[in-house]
Amino acid sequence: MPSLTFLLRPGWIALVLVVVAFTYLCFTVLAPWQLGKNTRTSRENHQIDYSLNTPPVSLKMLLPQHDSSAPSAQWRKVTATGHYLPDVQVLARLRVVEGSPAFEVLAPFAVDDGPTVLVDRGYVRPEPGSHVPPISRPPDHTVTITARLRDSEPAVQGKEPFTRDGFQQVYSISTGQISSLTDVPLAGSYLQLVEDQPGGLGVIGVPQLDAGPFLSYGIQWIAFGILAPIGLGYFAYAELRARRKEKQAAPPAAEPMSVQDKLADRYGRRR
């Protein structure tokens, strides 16, 4: 049987290492990454669908106190009575609404006998040079608002808040970061106003229900992780077969002559 020592050649060793590394990444990084995105998208789609077909409930049922959050109720429509805190507004910059740049205007809202919650009043379009346009102040009296619950976003690493055009600006709607920035204790989830609400600006709509390609991408990476070692095995087998055929096609090596045959051949030629 032909030797498998060809597998120890530097080229084959490099190929084996690449295939092993690729297979490892497929099963531990790439497939879980896409399948995780599919899980999150499916969860959000379910929450959106549920919220669209469920009447609003009191905010205090889901956020009873300042340290409350409701990740399982994202997009749920709620109502709250209270007042906006005066002179406290923060802008979330570099947002995209309906395909165009926007600032989202954030303001704390103190719920009567409940927590203070961050409210996304809606969006305004930036002026040339990314300057802030004039923004109307929210009502300064008690109002009742209807909004959708949203999960707090993680703060963007390396992007610190700053002040420009008279507004504190942030790169994500992180309730923890904005609470520290404004010295206002805030609940863990925030509110996104629906249309025709007191203090509302440009309405931010609900995302379309779309599962996206993440599940198929995850399955593809799993398939690639399975096929890569199979392909390596096939190439090794093909190389082995080629070597076997070469050996079978080579002429048989001449058998070494014994001493007697050599003497007989030598003296026979002399005669």
UniProtKB/TrEMBL annotation:
CDD domains: SURF1 (cd06662). Pfam families: SURF1. Residues 246-271 are annotated as: Disordered. It is found in: Cell membrane; Membrane. The keyword Iron-sulfur does not apply. Residues 262-271 have a biased composition (Basic and acidic residues). Keywords: Cell membrane, Membrane, Transmembrane, Transmembrane helix. The chain crosses the membrane at residues 12-33, 214-237. The keyword Transmembrane applies. InterPro entries: Surf1/Shy1 (IPR002994), Surf1/Surf4 (IPR045214). Its main location: membrane. One of its GO terms (cellular component) is plasma membrane. It is a multi-pass membrane protein. Belongs to the SURF1 family. This is SURF1-like protein.
